[in-house]
Amino acid sequence: MSPVRVTWHRTIGRARSLYSTAFAVGAFLAASAALFAFKLDAAEGVSLSVASVWAMGVAPFLPALAAILAMDVWSDELQSGRIELLLTTPVREREFTLGKFLGVFTMLVFATFLSFASTVIALRVYAPSTLAGIGVLGFCPAFLALMLQGVLWCAVSVAMSSIFRHAAAAACASLLLLIGIPRGGWAALLAWAPLGRPAFGEMLLDAHVVDMSSGLFSSGTILSYLILSSFFLFVATKNVAICRFGGRGGRSLRFSTAFAIVLAGVFSGLVVELVNRLDSKLDLPVGNLETEFSARTRGILAEAHGEMSVTCFLSRKDARFRPIGHFLRRLQRESASLGGIKIDLCFVDPLWDLGYAERLVRLGAAEESLVFEKGRRNVVQPLADGYDERICASSIQSLTMPPQRRNVYWTIGHGEMSSNEYGTFGMSDIARDLAREGYRNMPIDLAGDAQIPSDCALIVVAGAKEDFSRAEAGRIDAYLRAGGRLLVLLAAADSGGVASLLPGWGLRPSQVSITGAKTLSSTDVIVGEFSEHAISKPLQGSRIVLERPISFMPSAAAEAGAGADRIEFTPLAKAGTAVVAATVERGVGAGADLSIRPMRIVAIGDAGFVMNGQLAARANANRDFFLNCVAYLSGTDASVASGAGANALSTGLDRAARVRFVVVLAGMVPFAIFLILLAVAARRRCRG
Amino acid sequence: MFEVRNIAFTYRKKPVLRDVSFVVSPGEVVCVVGANGAGKTTLLKVLATLAAPDSGVVMVDGQNALAKPLRYRKQLGYLPERVSLYEDMTVKEYLNYRAALKGEPLKRIRRRVDEACEMCKVSEYLRSPIGSLSAGLKKRVALADALLLRPRVLLLDDFLAGLDGEMRDAAGPVLSAAAAFSSVIATGHELDDLAKWATRFFVLRDGVISASVSTAGVDRAVVLGRLSSALRGGAA
User: Fold this and answer.
1) Which of A85, A165, A255 to mutate to test the interface with B (most CBs of B within 10 A)?
2) Are both A273 and A306 inside the same structural domain?
3) Which residues of B touch A17 (CB under 8 A)?
4) Which of A196, B12, B64, B73 is the most buried (most CB within 10 A)?
5) What's the predicted TM-score (pTM) here?
6) Tens digits of per-residue pLDDT, B105-129?
7) At A359, phi and psi to the nearest 5?
8) What is the pLDDT of residues A257-307, one digit of tens each?
9) CATH code, domain with A417
10) Smallest CA–CA separation between B2 and chain A, in Å?
11) For B166-220, how does the pLDDT look when each residue is reduced to its tens digit (9 = 90+)?
12) In this structure, what CATH number is given to the domain that contains residue A319?
């Protein structure tokens, strides 16, 4: 047997006899399962693979597991003096280090596999729909991503164990190096940077897991992990070898070893930089997460004619390069299949394609942007704002169709959420989306003698806390009678804003408290049941999230009236039997015959439905729902966005089933595995 | 033939060994004695490649052993002063592990382990976990480990320390048997016991071999007298 294999075998045998291994693996399984359940809860309705969610649940705890498993592989030998027995055998230090590293890594693979197996089994039992279209094989890229990181975590932990004589000190150093510095540094960066997360994207380590688990493999990333792992194993080997260089005779050897470590560090850094510069990406088709383009996008593509070009002004080593290229090519194919505008794609790397880059800069494009050009007109879309279907369709529309500016008036003066507020409780994000769609956001103060302008496409009352005065309500009422359009985000059923006005227009808000049956915190209500209305139909399969929503029912006014005065109440979204979003329309059909503009109101039972915090906290289709509401009210009628569609992650779990799922996956399974490992360790210790 | 030439070792500017030279023939059992801090353990560490000497060479059969340490370590058996074994392993598992680590082919490991256990009288403890053994038995297991592959050079650091009288008596035949295939170099303070089976003594004083006392054909009392004298600083 080779010394590496003997040492590997011994390291695993020792780990099996330690109670700390049982505790570490049990705690790892429990913590990762709990985080997975939490992330699964948050990803409900999002176009995301369950394998990615699992990987994101496991990844933060892998460094801690590696640190605990590896903490005594060298430090125990150093402290007990057994290192002398090892170093007098005809085995090279690197063979010992490799054997110990492989032993720790094997335990890490074993623990991760247990997490994977228990997760898949629990999902099969409780939420089989999540595995539809992905299967067990779909977890392979996620597993590989975790193992790639695991290699580095184990190498670092083994290196720390060779530096410190006390296992606890080695574990602390590993935790500091693997969790404290990267996560703490990232938190500090976000705290320091005024724009926070949007400016920096995901943390690098998390982004690698997400990318690879969704099938996007980068040669630079993979090689970087392997090179850094080799460096730390080299450090461990040299630290062990340095044990022989105690006296004056070893002084030169100590210096040369330290120099070799520094040189290896510099060399590793340079090679990592090089492999990242020469990066190439492999996009594996994992799961079927591609959504169909919305009717609106297809309409825009089909109606546009001629030729246009879309230039991706982005470095090829950027993680977004491949998915953007993939998306643009889909857009190009879709347009060709519809017989619409011919789209030429161009990819310009600011580092390499200097001539093209100069031209784009002259056009006013900054790096990391998409440039849409048709003839002499162009639209520059910064990638920081996203590059999804809706944004690209809007850009194409603005180049190919005559501009139609429509004014959206946001009422102010009653404690409404502001479209100019950039904080958590502001509406700046959705206002920016509206501007991108061609709307002009305007504030309107109805107090005093202010009248509603004639160019008003619709009025938004976003979570008013105070009641409108009689005069203000009268103006809105008059506006509605003349075929006005109103979008109301309601904070309470009986007070605030125009709540008192709604029953007269067919909508009766109800203060019945609705709790979420699909989330662990019942305040978040996930709604996935949509009606066939133009606003909500494209969102079938997606989820919107409302916090402590109120519900609506038709008032007496909705039942009365005939012909052009008839008011029709249509539920848009339901949580169980409760309608959490609804629309009323007067003058539909008959109104059109008489050339009367139909009055439309859309009411959503959550004041913070599209506030910045809600859009950022939990992935959802709220933004799409709101934009469709605005499109419908302003008269566009065509839906703007299609949400996540049929590929949205759906567990189909109600709260009771979710609690059972969490208890089994994060409680019973880890505890059972902990007891089994404990029994194995006790049996080994109690022999003889 | 095992030869040590002009070994010097300095630790934190303090010379621990100075120009130490001696030769050990096959079949010889050499004991290095001296006061605490004389440099006995350091000498054995240098010979076991656990410390790099400032100068000097170690020759095995005319070859510089320190120039090819892996080859040298294949011929080396070492028992450290402080015995620390893997408590979670049984004696058999431990010796199997050590034999595999020393490069012995799998099919020969069992025979080697049985031989070493037989020599050190630990055969009956093969299935016992090391953690359950007494300190003396652990030392015998460590000695079995050192003797595992019939090493050409056997280094035993203060190996009688902690052993009771019966076990010390039993150590003599073990070392005599080991001397059949090894050049044995042992250190210790128990002159009475060492004199029973050592063929030669080197007295280490302030890092220098101050005296060499042969036991061949000399009465044990005379040997002990000479050693005592040498240790006090007089002539051997």
Assistant:
1) A85
2) no
3) 88
4) B73
5) 0.75
6) 888 899 999 988 988 888 898 888 8
7) -60, -40
8) 999 999 999 999 999 999 988 877 777 766 545 566 777 788 788 888 888
9) 3.40.50
10) 17
11) 778 878 888 888 888 888 999 988 888 888 888 889 998 888 888 888 887 778 7
12) 3.40.30.10
Residues A624 and A603 in one domain: yes
CA–CA separation, A76 and B225 (whole Å): 44
Tokens of B122: 């630990």
A520 & A621 share domain = yes
Q: Cα-Cα-Cα-Cα dihedral of B72, B77, B83, B86, to 10°?
A: 80
Structural domains in chain B, CATH included, are: 1-75+151-236 (3.40.50.300), 83-150 (no CATH)
- Is residue B126 within 8 angstroms of chain A, CB to CB? no
Kindly provide the ipTM of the predicted complex, given to two decimals.
0.92
| A244 vs B9, B49, B100: nearest CB | B49
**Number of domains comprising chain A:** 3
A150 — pLDDT class (breaks 50, 70, 90): very high
Which of A400, A424, A441 is the endpoint of a domain?
A400
**Which residues constitute the domain of residue A452?**
406-643
Q: Say if residue A256 is in the same domain as residue A320.
A: no
DSSP classification of residue A103: H
Q: Are residues A146 and A272 in the same domain?
A: yes
Nearest to A153 by CA among A70, A275, A236: A70
Residues A321 and A268 in one domain: no
Work out the minimum CA distance from B194 to partner chain A, whole angstroms. Answer: 24
Q: Which residue of B has its CA nearest to A16?
A: B88
Percent of residues in chain A assigned helix, strand, coil, to nearest 5? 55, 15, 30
What span, in angstroms and rounded, lies between the C-alpha atoms of A331 and A608? 33
Residue B84 to residue A80, Cβ atoms within 8 A: yes
Strand order across the B55-60 sheet: B14-24, B2-11, B55-60, B63-64
Structure letter (DSSP) for residue A563: G
Do A281 and A340 fall into the same domain?
no
- Indicate whether A378 and A526 sit together in one domain: no
